[in-house]
Predict the 3D structure of the following.
Amino acid sequence: MTIMTDPPKESFRLSMLLNDSRYRSLTLQVIAAILLALVIFYLANNVATNLAALGVSISFDFLGAPAGYDINQRLIEYTSQSSNLQAAFVGILNTMLVAVLACITATILGVFAGVLRLSNNWLVSKLMSIYVEIFRNIPLLIWILVIYGVMTVVLPAPNAFRGDDPSASMFMGISAFTNRGVYIPGPEFSRIFGETGILSAGIGWLVAIAILVGSFFGARIVNKRATRIQEATGVRPATLATNLAIWFLPLIAFFIITGLTFVVPVLKGFNFGGGIKIGAPLIAMWLALSVYTGAFIAENVRAGIQAVSKGQTEAAGALGIRPGRIMSLIILPQALRVIIPPMISNFLNITKNSSLAILVGYADVTATLGGITLNQTGRAIECVVLLMLFYLIISLTISGVANVYNNSTKLKER
Amino acid sequence: MSDTSASAVAFVRTESVPASAPPSNAAGPVKWVKDNLFAGVGNSILTVLAILAIYMVLSKSMPWILNGVWDAPSLSACREILNGETGACFAVLSERWNQLLFGFKYPAELYWRPATAFVLLFVAAAPVLFFDLPRKLLIFTGLYPFLAFWLIWGGPIFYPLIALIGLIVAYKVFVAFEKNNFTMALGLGALSAIVIWYLSGFVGENSALLALSLEAVPSRDLGGFMLNMMLGVTCVSLSLPLGIALALGRQSSMPFIRYICVIFIEFIRGVPLITLLFVASVMLSYFFPPGSGVDLFIRVVIMITMFSSAYIAEVIRGGLAALPKGQYEAADSLGLDYPQAMRLIILPQALKISIPGIVNVAVGLFKDTTLVSVISMFDMIGMIRGPIVASTDWNGIYWELFGFAALLFFVVCYGISQYSQWLERRLATDHR
């Protein structure tokens, strides 16, 4: 028989800081903190010394000073007399514009390619594999330059559209593909919003979007009521006509009231006027980002569909569900859980990769704030820090949304 | 019982009918075509569209490629030879071949040095990539960085040699003390290396030790595809250990260390590489002591390494998280301390799971090395956009150069990803 006694109480010794697991982690963290503080102090000291030697100090005053350069592609009013801050803001909007456009087309392209890669058709699936491999393995930078080259070298100059026997003609008589960009008919609201221009068209479109959002909620109410009736009686009332009316009637009425017309671009002087101009750099960025990221999304989509086991399809078939419904009710919801997280990180990549716009002269935020403003004012530290801050905010927002989504679609297990 | 026997029946065939060939539409190429290309209306339409697309691409590109001119001094001479026919001017590739590979400033008589380094890279990488090769070859892999540095930059062999000696001594010290305490061994190893490097500083300017030297080439003279390869190889190999450390730090139970790692990783992953390159080109020199003049190549290597280490850390974190908890507990219950558990139990398994992800990061990083052309370094793309297209001889040429660059990158990146798939199959231990 043994007698258990408490071990003798040890008094604290200095060696316990390293040898006792109760204190060791604390010791290590304190050491790490001290080292980090030393490194930061060293770097900050270097920066201060270097800046003092150059005779400059950190200041953000330059943001208020006139920028002094023009920006071709812009979504808001801007002149060369506007401030650097406004230039940066134009850049931010341009970044958002190309990112959103590229996200939409890359998704469409990627889903098509991913689904077709699983097709029974040998030729089509091989063709899609080639597409994916080629675009994934060649740097995006090369794609941007190549597509920009196609835009500027192959397409005709506006001059070619001139004369009695022009060497180039407008596509269907309403759009012109030139080496300066693509000119498409632009909508104009001739009544109510008065003067034509970017601002009034912008307000008009905002109202149109608001109407669409209203229609969306209206349609939801109708559909919910239909579902309620179906659950109570087993018969679903026809909702198609009501839905169509809710979606389209208000919008059409709005367009008629405001007198929506499309202005076709016409050749004036050396260039086209009227309508909307989509500059060659924007198109090059948009297409390059779409086809490049589309290849990555195609892989995700393929992996997602393959991740749903075949037994699911068979089980649904055994329950007598029709093939179309098997896809929409059984396969897609499960595949989407696998597809969406990498898809969101691809959207993030598009946003970050849009910073390559500086290569082709598209005025995104990297080109305005990190390019011309930085070079003209010489405020390297301030510009780069602001630039990083912008991208950081965008990234953290998108990954925050992704986390919320992932948590909500996580398999709820025991 | 019935007494009918076989002989009582009028006719019974004694041998079986030989199997006849399946009908021609149920086997062979006809069936394959029917099943795989024309299985239905929609399928047939897709096939026709695909054939149409292939025809359109080939009918445009094949004459252009096959009719290419490989020997001409300038674009105008090339167009004269073509005489109005479609055809590529591949002559730009043969004429500017060295510039595309080595940049336009690297001394021509020294091209053999980076070329040797490039060939030796395969020898050095082979034992890392293929486990069946003799392990002794790893010694050469260890020597390679110093050899390659000396070949490419030149200068006295003393400097890479002393760096190597320092590391060898540090390793010996580390092995000697490893049994006692991992952390202490690491510290002592680092200390001994620093002592040796410090002592080497006392070697005089005219010492005989500095005599054995190659002609020095400053790093601003590096360029072309060589620069892409150097950045890719250096940054991937440097970022692996850093990425492992960051991943372990992010999993650490010490909150302070964990937060530092999380902030670092999320910050780097949140900004585009191009802003980090801006930091390297315009901002990073402020962080060094005044007058140290760290050159652009090193600054870019620092920033790209930080960039890729954050991504590799995330991949390895995925590998660590994928390991069953039992592995951690088993290591603990065997009485292994943290460094032992990580080195012997956790990391070998976690790294194996992470290989495909790490290779993806490496391929992405290699593609991203082309971004340095934005901060006016003359890598392959920088060479094409700058000195070659801007020259009077080749002004206006476009597709041949970018096609060549695309081909080169495709071969390397596709090769790496095929290797990774082979390795995955090779390392798969679950018998499915």
User: Anything to note?
Assistant: The CA atoms of residues 21 and 27 of chain B lie 9 Å apart.
